[in-house]
Amino acid sequence: MKTLPLKHFFKATALALALSSSMSLFAQPTDQVVAVVDNSIILKSDLDQSIAEIKHQLETQKKTVPPAQYLQQQALDQLILRQAQLEQVKRYNIKPNEKELNEAVLKVAAQSGSKSLEAFQQKLDAIAPNTYESLRNRIGDDLAVNRLRQQMVMSRIKISDQDIENFLKTPQGQAALGNQVHVLHVRISGKQDVEKVAKEVQAALKESNDIASIDKKFTSANVKVESADMGLRNLSEIPSELAARVSPLQTGQITDLITVSDGIHILKLLERKGAEQKALVPQYQVRHILIQPSEVVSPENAKQQIDSIYNRLKAGEDFAVLASTFSNDPGSARDGGSLGWVNPGVMVPEFEAKMKSTPVGQMSAPFQSQFGWHILQVTDARQQDMTREYQERMARQILGERQFDAELDSWLREIRSNAFVEIKDPSLDRKQNK
């Protein structure tokens, strides 16, 4: 099942506040604890910043700002729920990797006109010291919370084989069976009024397929509208998160607004054709040897070991024997290093690239991935008909999306009710104010 978009990712409102130096205004010499959540605290400055963000967002959307007491309570509720999730993040030791975090920060940097992390850091820290680090930590927390949600909520979603079979017999299921679709794809991004413009674009797209005119009409100094005619292609060739949105559409229909970290997306289905081609996927039969650095094996020693094993293999020693003896991948080592038949997209990029470039019957030179040093051998290759598997995957994905929001709400309520929460400020305690 796919990874769903991060629904409450770091908002542009916080970036706007940072760039206008508002964040620094909340730092107080003598900060006050307004709430305790499990092993963490929420400070008055945290609450003030959250209130400012909510007000900024409402004002940007031209919505009425509620009374101060209500706004305070809503902001505090959000902070408590977020902190309860962060406590779970710490419990399960969930952390984004550096590459993922850098990419997320770079997207936010691009919104402010910075082309590199270094330029973005200089820009923010010129506003106030450590602003960049605070922003980066917050984005990292958001990524970790999103991963926590995916893991916890997905584990609660139960979809049986019978559920999939029943779904594939429905009209919506039939639409997901690898049909060819002709789709218009529009992305709206910018600094402000993005959702408002997206709704206007959505209305225009219902009346017209002239995406060039729509782009020109709705692009402004604050909002960028970019459209593309994706042409007629198999659903299997479209990113799975978009294919799942297109599958239930009838010709001429438009998706709801799809909000992700790089903007708001809208899709329009122009044409649908029945699938005539099978979903043939290249597969590789692979075995490998892995040497991992550890507390007792330095990176240099790991490289020396893999080079020694490579020389022994070139000298004619048996791959399976050396894999069983030396490989640090216990799952495959027990089977002579065999990984069985491997589909594209399953292995890390370095491994997949080497797998695809190694001829059948040949062995790669040592190469490095995030797991350590590898040697792989491709023993066979084939084109496998994965049509049925693809259909079932699409069905499971669509059914999972249907359940996700309900299960997320249920899980969040449980997280909140199970958290230890003590409100230190009596004016914010609902129980005392009833």
UniProtKB/TrEMBL annotation:
Please quote what the entry notes about the protein's domains. Answer: The PPIase activity resides only in the second parvulin domain. The N-terminal region and the C-terminal tail are necessary and sufficient for the chaperone activity of SurA. The PPIase activity is dispensable for SurA to function as a chaperone. The N-terminal region and the C-terminal tail are also required for porin recognition.
- Classify the source by domain of life: Bacteria
Q: Which GO terms describe its molecular function?
A: peptidyl-prolyl cis-trans isomerase activity
Which residue range or ranges hold the PpiC domain?
A: 178-271, 281-380
* Subcellular localization: Periplasm
UniProt protein name? Chaperone SurA
- Signal peptide span per the entry? 1-27
Q: Which UniProt keywords apply?
A: Chaperone, Isomerase, Periplasm, Repeat, Rotamase, Signal
Q: In its keyword annotation, does this UniProt entry include Ligase?
A: no
